[in-house]
């Protein structure tokens, strides 16, 4: 190897080393920017993912609330329609109770007159429509009226039966005095039916409120 060739190799090595050293410094200078860019990118990506998750969570909460509102609206609508139907039925039953009261008063009044006057005619006993309808549809609202009515209805019916038994035993005291003596039983019963009617009037006011 000649001295010229050795010199050329040494100079090439120096230039190559110098070239590598320059790239090393350039890379060192660029690394912070690359790191900052990567960090910023990752941060933005993380924020984007968090926002998407937050959006989905918010959307889910809104959907849940909307469904809850729909359920509440449906329940209110159902309860309203159900209440309207119940009120309609109760109004119809009030009319039925009034008619039953009129019929029962007439029948028991005739029974008392027949039994007290010793007319010896057949007696016709009324049904329990009044008790049945009031118990089914207005028991909680008209409990006292119903108890008072049933008590004096029983007393009147018992008295009519006693008079009938007296008539069959031929120990009855005939005449208007006997009728007048027993009329208080009917008047007390009549007042009990009036109390039922007054209670029904109050219920009708409630059922027809706007």
Please give a structural write-up.
The chain has helices spanning 3-116, 129-137, 143-169, 176-207. It is mainly α. It is rod-shaped. 15% of the residues are buried. The model has no long low-confidence stretch (mean pLDDT 80).
Blueprint of the fold:
Layout: H1 3-116, H2 129-137, H3 143-169, H4 176-207
Number-wise, the strands total 0
Q: First CA to last CA: what distance?
A: 121 Å
- Principal-axes geometry comes out as rod-shaped
Helices and strands, in order, run as: HHHH
Fraction in beta strands: under 5%
The structure class reads mainly alpha
The low-confidence runs, each spanning 5 or more residues with pLDDT under 50, are none
Largest sheet: none
As a whole number of angstroms, the C-alpha radius of gyration is 51 Å
Helix count from the secondary structure assignment: 4
Which bin fits the share of residues in helices? over 70%
Instruction: Give the rounded overall mean pLDDT.
Output: 80
List the keywords.
210 residues; mainly alpha; 4 helices
Can you give me a brief rundown of this structure?
The protein has 210 residues and is mainly α.
């Amino acid at each position: 190897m000649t001295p010229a060739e050795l010199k050329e190799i040494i100079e090439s090595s120096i230039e190559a080393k110098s070239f590598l050293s320059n790239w090393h410094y350039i890379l060192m200078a660029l690394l912070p920017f690359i790191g900052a860019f990567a960090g910023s990118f990752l941060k933005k990506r993380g924020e984007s993912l968090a926002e998407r998750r937050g959006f989905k969570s918010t959307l889910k909460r809104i959907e849940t609330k909307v469904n809850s509102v729909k359920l509440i609206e449906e329940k209110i609508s159902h309860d309203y329609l159900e209440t309207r139907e119940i009120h309609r039925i109760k109004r119809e039953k009030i009319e039925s109770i009034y008619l039953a009261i009129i019929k029962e008063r007439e029948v028991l009044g005739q029974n008392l007159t027949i039994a007290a006057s010793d007319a010896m005619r057949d007696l016709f006993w009324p049904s329990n429509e009044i008790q049945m309808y009031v118990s089914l549809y207005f028991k909680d609202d008209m409990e006292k009226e119903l108890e008072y009515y049933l008590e004096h209805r029983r007393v009147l019916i018992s008295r009519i039966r006693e008079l009938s038994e007296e008539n069959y035993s031929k120990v009855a005291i005939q005449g208007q005095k006997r009728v007048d003596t027993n009329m208080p039983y009917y008047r007390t019963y009549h007042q009990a039916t009036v109390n039922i009617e007054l209670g029904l009037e109050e219920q009708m006011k409630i059922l027809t409120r706007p």
